[in-house]
Structures are given as C-alpha cells and as structure tokens.
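Hi U.,

Before I forget, here's the chain from the pilot set. I'm dumping it here mostly so it's searchable later in email.
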Amino acid sequence: MDPAVVLVFILSCLVLLSLWRQRSERGKLPPGPTPLPLIGNFLQIDVKDISRSLTNLSKVYGPMFTLYMGMKPTVVLHGYEAVKEALIDHGEEFAGRGSFPMAERLNKGFGIIFSSGSRWKETRRFTLMTLRNLGMGKRSIEDCVQEEAQCLVEELRKTNGSPCDPTFILSCAPCNVICSIIFQKRFDYKDHHFLTLMEKVNENSRILSSPWLQVCNNFSSLIDYCPGSHHTITKNFNYIRSYLLEKIKEHQESLDDANPRDFIDCYLIKMKQANHNQQSEFSLENLAITLSDLFAAGTETTSTTLRYALLLLLKHPHVTAKVQEEIDQVVGRDRSPSMQDRSRMPYTDAMVHEVQRFIDLVPTNLPHAVTCDIKFRDFFIPKGTTIITSLSSVLHDSKEFPNPEVFDPGHFLDKNGNFKKSDYFMPFSTGKRICAGEGLARMELFLFLTTILQNFKLKSLVHTKDIDTNPVVNGLTSLPPPFQLCFIPV
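Structure:
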C-alpha cells in the first residue's frame, strides 16, 4: 500500500478518535469552546498571556469551563468562589497534581511539588515537620534571614551608588537562606559554584515561563522529539541534581544520628528508620528531587518577588517614602528590622502584600487534578482530570480590590490605616497544596525589603512615567522586565 495512503488513513483514524473522545467527555464536563481535532482549543489560547485568555473565556462560559489542551480535557476554575470551593471546601478531592509533562520527565513523580498520592502526602508531611523543627517561623530561622539581609546590604554597598541590575544579588540572598536550611552552608556571593547554580536556576525560570514551554506542556511529544530550549532545562536540572547528590553523599559519610545538622541529615535518619518498610516513600532519589524542589522554589519565587518589588517602588516613590518613614519611626537606624516590628508597621506590611497581589507571580497556579470521580457544581469530573485554578482572577477581583490593576497598598488597609487581611490573598495558592515554604517566604520578603529600604534610597535611571511594570513573560510565572537602579546609602 502507498505510504501516503497509510499516513492519510492513520491521521483520519486519529481525528475520528479525537472527535469521539471529545464528544463522549464533553457531555459530562462543564461547557467550553468547541475543540478542534487533535489540537483542541490551543488556537484560542495566547501562550504569551494564558491568564488573560482564561479571563476572556470566563466572560463567555462562566466561572467553570472546559478546555482541551491537545486531546485531553482541562477544567478551568475562575474567580474566588470557584477556587475556594474546590481547593478548600473539597481540598482532598482536588489535591492531585495535574499534567505538567516537562516536570514529569525531570522529577519522575518524586519530590514535593510534582508528586501525588501517598508519596506526596508523606514527603510534604515530613518536609513541613522538618522545616518547623529546623526553625521555620521561629527565631533561629529569623536570625539566619537577618544575617543574610546584612550580607545583602554589604553587597549592595559595593555598587557605590552606581547603576546595577539587581537580579543576581537578589537571587543570592534567598538562595543562601535555603542552602543554610537544607545543607547548613551559605556561599560568598562571588563563589564559583554559587554563581553557576544561580545562573542555572534563573535560566530555568525564564524558559519555563516562555511561550515555547507552554506549547511543549500541551503537546508533550515535542519534548522528546523536537529541538528547543526545553533541553537546556534538562541539562540545568541535571547539573543541580548532581550537585545536590554530592552534598547528600558528604552527609552520609559524616552523619551523626543523634545530632542532625540540617534537612539532609533529618531525611537520612528518617530513611534509616523506614528502611524495614517496603512501602516507604523515603529514598535517595526522592530526597534529591525534594531538595531540588526546595532549592528552586525557595530561590526563584522569592528573588523574583523582591526584584518586582524594587521596580514597583521605583515606579511609585510616594509609596517608598511612606515605607521608609515607617521604618524610621519603628525600627530606626541602629538595629536590624525583625518580625516583631511587622505588627507596628501596617503600611509596610500592606506594601509587601500588595506587591504579591499586584505582580500575580504564578497566575494560573500549578495544575491540580481530582483524586477521584467527583460531582462538582452539577458537573461530573472524572478522576485524574487536570484542573487549572486562576489565581489571577482571585488576586485581581475588583469587588475585593477596587481598581485591581493599580498598585495601591491601601488594598490591605482599613479606614484607620490598620492592616487588613483578605481571604482573597492567595499568591501561595491555598488548600492542601499551598506552598510549603509560605512562612519562610513571607519572612524573607518583609525582612529583606525593610532592611534594603532602611539602608538605601532607590534611584531610578529614567523618569517614573517611563518605568514599565508589565511582565515580559506571563507563563508559569510572571517575570518583570529587566531594569537598573542605584542604591544610594542613607
């Protein structure tokens, strides 16, 4: 038979199969735009700004609708009520990890971020317990963050008030905090290994948020068979993983069960204790991937938020002035800011919250999946269906945050100027899969930003009206445009 005829026959069968699957599934799932065979609704999604595409579709189909990313259905939840109902009210049923092909190839179902089921539950429970035991949310970790904040200040002083791109310096500080926790080591900002690790983490973050990776994650065969920047992610990931495996080996050789020094020691001790249990999820592979998760998430999300915060403070000097006035009144110049100060600094606290709300760092959250068949809002969602929860729609809700597209710390202040909490504040997600490092990240953002503003005036190289605060990419994360500024000592 002619090869061309065979090819046409195979393609025809695939199209018919696609149409049959879509038709049989769509009757049970929420409504949505009509998908095309094979590619689904992909042409209706702007891979440069997926969040905006979802908002536009929600205006047509409501707070719950179905998209086909390729041949697989994805249920999108848009708005506070739908997101809360799923992730909090039905937290257990929506606690699975949805499809993320690039991560699946790298992590192979291990770690804390992209695992599911009993492995995820055990790893998360152990990680949260160990981070608390090591001092997360306590004075010991606060001391570590304060010391790193002073190292950051000293590094910024070396710029001598000259224009600089803060990207690298702001990555070093949170990375050193997480390194201190997982293997009890901080690096000099000029250390060669440290420079290389930072470069690879930053590069992976940029690529994972690029339009090309949004395409790859929806058509996973591209990852295996096409050239592209996704191969750079694999190389960088393997480099970081190899470095962490070296650290694990060093810890194995010097381990003292009675005196654990850091996260790796605690895990190795737990692994020994669970060695008799064949069902145990504690293994060297799971440790390496969990460390990689903590290392990348603990570095990049916080450093990107810090960088975006400085850009917004340059754009809004009146906000910066009010924060610095509050720092002068509450902290002064003779000691380091502490977490105890936060309750007496409502405007600064509101500014940090508003930065996180405004920048909308992870606009569509990491994908969830339902862990069982579930009837939700009068629709039937089969077990394993990927769920996208739009955090943008919550953080930019105009009823909760008037003029949500405007950067305004007043969104988190009451009429008396006191700090005002909001249930809509979900930059770390919510429910069972809320970020394990939320407490540490909140501490770092407050202490790093207040320490910088205690010691420096921020000087822009351009007029405030010319400062662009729109993200350059809006995929997995929202990344700020590159910029320079001067840190002028006060």
